[in-house]
Amino acid sequence: MKSKAIPHMILAVILALVAGVLTIRWLGSVRGTGEPGKPAAETKKIEVLVAARPLAKGARLDTTMVRLKPYDPEAAPLGAMRDASEVVGRVTAREISQDDPITPDKLLPKGAAGGGLDASVEPGKRALTVKGTKVMGSGGLITPGCRVDVLSTYNQPGKADEKVTKVILENIPVLTTGTEREVRVGQDGREELANTDFFTLMVTPEEAERLALASDLGNMHLALRKPGDDDVVATAGADVARSLDAYALAPTLPPAVAESEPAPADAGYSVEIIRGTERERIKLDSLGVMPAEEKKHANP
User: Fold this and answer.
1) pLDDT of 208 strictly over 90
2) Which of 144, 61, 146 has its CA nearest to residue 96?
3) How far apart are CA 31 and CA 37, in angstroms?
4) Which 8-state DSSP code applies to residue 255?
5) What is the pLDDT of residues 239-255, one digit of tens each?
6) How far is residue 222's CA from residue 138's CA, in Å, rounded to a whole number?
7) By three-state DSSP, how is residue 292 classified?
8) What is the pLDDT of residues 134-171, one digit of tens each?
9) What is the mean pLDDT of residues 129-134?
């Protein structure tokens, strides 16, 4: 019996070894290699241009400002630039952080000379500059980046001697401010140099028309807004009559009648007579002498 079982055992061992070898080879093929312990093939990465250091708005790029960084194809930003020759000499349209991928929307068009005022104007908007004063500019507190409301004072149509003030624009961003010296005619008729403040506002074409008209015909004022306050408030404007009505005096009340105080009981003249240790007070009136009302000992 034992002699017959030995061949069967040998055959089972051979089959087990063959199955093990086949299993190992199959696992190796699944991993992409027949060598155990070797990692599977990695996905091929692509190189994308990124900022080598923080870049300011308006910077002209050169080869030292950018570098290549590997990205997974699915993780690379859409339109990311990969050739340094495509960006060298171009100007940044906004600030770019370090290691931030370089994309076309972060650069000015090819041939742009620099990141001037035109680069700050949003699509569909216009930059319009108006003259002002220190009072109009809140004593120099209105600076680029602030938002303002524009008020203008006009002569009322058909009433040259009556004026009205109206808010014509709201929540307008200030792009730039500046001061220049201009020649003006002084009170004595002589020409003199004086400072003139300028404010450049970003407006739509329709708002630019209203702003230009207010600058030519009326007296303008800028009202500084709190950051984050985007509410639009409709107003009817103000003239002299409305202003006086707003501050009209309250209805006149009848004058208060002062209550008369009762006459003191001891009104009139009195005479005090002291005799030794006694003191007597005699009250007098217009008709004669009244009887004494009090008698008491005087203090020793």
Assistant:
1) yes
2) 61
3) 10
4) P
5) 777 777 766 655 555 66
6) 8
7) coil
8) 667 666 678 888 899 999 888 877 776 788 888 999 99
9) 79
How far is it, in rounded angstroms, from Cα 46 to Cα 70? 5
Query: Across-strand partners of 192?
Result: 184
Greatest mean pLDDT among 24-38, 206-220, 280-294 = 206-220
203 bridge partner residues: 126
What is the distance between the alpha carbons of residues 130 and 207, in angstroms, rounded to a whole number?
13
Maximum average pLDDT range among 156-170, 208-222, 274-288: 208-222
With beta carbons less than 8 A apart as the criterion, state whether 86 and 147 touch. no
Distance CA 220, CA 44 (A): 63
Tokens 């220190």, residue?
134
- How open is the CA angle 62-68-70, to the nearest 5 degrees? 165
Q: Which of 173, 221, 217, 214 is closest to 197 using CA atoms? A: 221
* Closest to 237 (Cα-Cα) out of 165, 168, 169: 165
Q: Which residues contact 117 (CB under 8 A, 6 or more apart)?
A: 127, 175, 176, 200
The position carrying tokens 């109009």 is 136
How many Å apart are CA 178 and CA 197, to the nearest integer? 6
User: Closest by alpha carbon to 82, among 50, 43, 112?
Assistant: 50
Contact indicator for 197, 179 with CB cutoff of 8 Å = yes
Task: Dump pLDDT digits (tens) for 163-201.
Answer: 888 899 999 999 888 776 655 666 676 766 656 688 899
User: How many other CB atoms sit within 10 Å of the CB of residue 286?
Assistant: 6
How far is Cα 197 from Cα 203, in angstroms, rounded to an integer? 19
**Which tokens in the block code for residue 102?**
């370089």
| Tokens matching residue 255 | 């004058």
